Amino acid sequence: NAGVMQNPRHLVRRRGQEARLRCSPMKGHSHVYWYRQLPEEGLKFMVYLQKENIIDESGMPKERFSAEFPKEGPSILRIQQVVRGDSAAYFCASSPPAIGHSNQPQHFGDGTRLSIL
Amino acid sequence: AQKVTQAQTEISVVEKEDVTLDCVYETRDTTYYLFWYKQPPSGELVFLIRRNSFDEQNEISGRYSWNFQKSTSSFNFTITASQVVDSAVYFCALSEENNAGNMLTFGGGTRLMVKP
Question: What's the pLDDT at B97?
């Protein structure tokens, strides 16, 4: 029973390149969340997606960042033209649909550590 | 708006000491969930506990215990007889029921160092 799978575990990019981070949710989970953890800080919510829909992207930077969760395949967080300040750990979490009015707990992947040279 | 504050950025104890990590939260919702996660040096997030706002009963799990006080909006975490393997960053988090989803708001974390 695989958990949330993120890859790559570590990613190194040069300034100006693109970074693509992948997240495969747990089986049966249709909700995906992305969080960013800057060095020495807590995690900050970025975006919440369901299959083919972005539900809440209030935590996403307005430029260069995008996320998708296609009908088939993993969720992708894409960062274009990366800068040094994008260096962080990016965590994905997934949850099943809510039951009635009760939200379901999130399960986290091990994160992708992005380093920008 | 929701907010989580972990005032202790770093705590250092000697093995076998008890240690309490503080967590204070703010929310306007009457229904919400509180969480604790452990982040060891390897970097992954380890889920420890989830409590809903209607359950104020304290919980004990082995050497871990949690004290939920709605009156002071606190959800403190105590490790009894600490061990070196407890060294990690611990995060408290909050999720409100009436979010469109259940995104988590994290505190800044408390780094716990347990020395032999």
Answer: 75
* Nearest residue to A88 via CA among A49, A48, A34: A34
pLDDT higher for A15 or A98? A15
Span A22-79, pLDDT tens digits: 999 999 888 999 999 998 888 999 999 998 899 999 999 999 999 999 999 999 999 9
Question: Chain B closest CA to A111's CA: distance in Å?
Answer: 7
Inspect the interface and report whether the beta carbons of A44 and B106 lie closer than 8 Å: yes
| Out of A33, A43, A110, closest to residue B44 by CB | A110
Within chain A, what is the greatest distance between any pair of CA atoms? 47
Nearest to B45 among A48, A98, A108 (CB): A108
Neighbours of B11 (CB within 10 A): 16
Query: Between the CA atoms of A71, A77, A78 and A79, what dihedral angle is there, to the nearest 10 degrees?
Result: 160
